[in-house]
Write a structure and sequence with these properties.
The protein has about 375 residues and is an alpha+beta fold. The protein is built from eleven helices and 13 strands.
């Protein structure tokens, strides 16, 4: 069995950012327009009036202050309220693949590797642009990588599940190194007309190079000491968009074809599950919680992260122990924990232990214990 390391990470951040103030201004303008246009029906009780949002509500509920997006104007246009991303021809690089290539290029450079050193590509994300051919194979072609590629989806936990799949391939000698990418255009499945969730998501892409320790030469090596995964079926986070929607005209455009969740139930269910899984994983690896210098947690909700860390540490974590990026990036699904890892790892000393953990729809939870070399 090969010793395996994460030797490089990459991050692509879209060029546009939307502040809470901008998002609220757009949403409230839509609410005012809706209520005016439906005033008569609202007066008779046939239609429920929409309530406005506020920056205070958003930050208290989530800790989010802004988000990066691949398209800004379409989202803020109250007559559209979704990204404006023109479809590309089959001869052009797909949008999701383009994001992946940009993040991957940075990860390869940080790892000190070229396409010739990589034997596999895994695209692990919440929303794939198409069913086939696999998006990972397109990324593989664009980068000039010989070997294999495949897509996988475990919602917000896709990156940690992808790390395990990549690490397994390297450990078993099926690949010298694997590139794992997480392109997330989350604004594409966001309902910007829903007060309870219109602020949650942003767009980004991360990439990770996983390789044999004996081949690694970078200054950013983290040995993967172990991975632990868990799934438990729940309808509390769901997106019913799929190829069969076109076969039922009645429900093709219903709200459940976008992101929907029962946030309070998710909070109550997921937080104890995550803390328990990380605790069990550390115990199985022979590490006390006190040995963990940093928890790179899924960046969905600040209150969730603080509660999970509190359950593990027995106290409130400080900024270094559980770094936050969701205030700037919002929820970027599978990319979130990797953004935190990418941006908050270089200050740690050799021998430091940390945990990369993701959690989300499924329910799905993934834990990766690492040690800096």
């Amino acid at each position: 069995m090969q010793k395996v390391v994460i030797s490089g990470t990459g991050l692509y951040t879209p060029p546009y950012s939307i502040s809470n103030e901008e998002l609220v201004e757009s949403f409230n303008a839509y609410v005012e327009k809706f209520n005016q246009e439906n005033a008569a029906a609202i007066a008779t009780g046939e239609v429920a009036p929409l309530a406005p949002s506020s920056t205070e509500f958003i930050e208290k509920a989530s800790g989010i202050k802004s988000r990066y997006v691949v398209n800004k104007d379409g989202i803020l246009d109250i007559n559209r309220m979704k990204p404006d991303i023109p479809e590309r021809s089959n001869d052009e690089l797909a949008v999701l693949a383009e994001l992946a290539v940009k993040a991957a290029t940075q990860a390869l450079e940080r790892a000190g590797k070229t396409a010739a050193d990589i034997d596999g590509v895994i695209m692990a994300c919440s929303n794939l642009q198409r069913a086939y051919p696999a998006m990972a194979v397109e990324v593989q072609e664009a980068l000039g990588i010989e070997g294999f590629g495949f897509d996988m989806n475990v919602a917000c936990s896709s990156a940690t599940f992808g790390i395990q799949a990549a690490a397994n391939a390297v450990q078993l000698g099926q690949a010298r190194a694997v590139l794992m990418v997480n392109p997330e255009i989350c604004t594409g499945h966001m309902n910007f007309r829903d007060r309870d969730s219109h602020f949650i998501f942003g767009d980004a892409c991360t990439a990770v190079v996983i390789e044999r320790a004996e081949d690694a030469t970078s200054d950013y090596q983290w040995e993967i000491l172990g991975t632990k995964l868990l799934t438990k079926f729940s309808n509390n986070i769901r997106n019913n968009f799929g190829f069969l929607n076109r076969a039922d005209d009645q429900y093709a455009d219903q709200p459940d074809k976008l992101f929907i969740q029962q946030g309070r139930k998710v909070f109550k269910d997921v937080c104890p599950m995550v803390a328990e899984l990380i605790g069990e994983h550390l115990q199985q690896t022979g590490l006390p919680v006190s040995d963990i210098r940093r928890f790179w947690l899924h960046q969905a909700n600040l209150n969730m992260n603080m509660l999970i860390a509190r359950k593990l540490l027995g106290r409130d974590p400080n900024e270094q122990e559980a770094p936050v990026v969701l205030d700037e990036y919002a929820n970027t699904s599978s990319a979130g924990s990797i953004i935190a890892f990418h941006k908050h790892q270089d200050d740690l000393e050799q021998g430091t232990h940390g945990v990369i953990c993701s959690f989300g729809a499924g329910y799905s939870i993934g834990s990766v214990i690492v040690r800096k070399l």
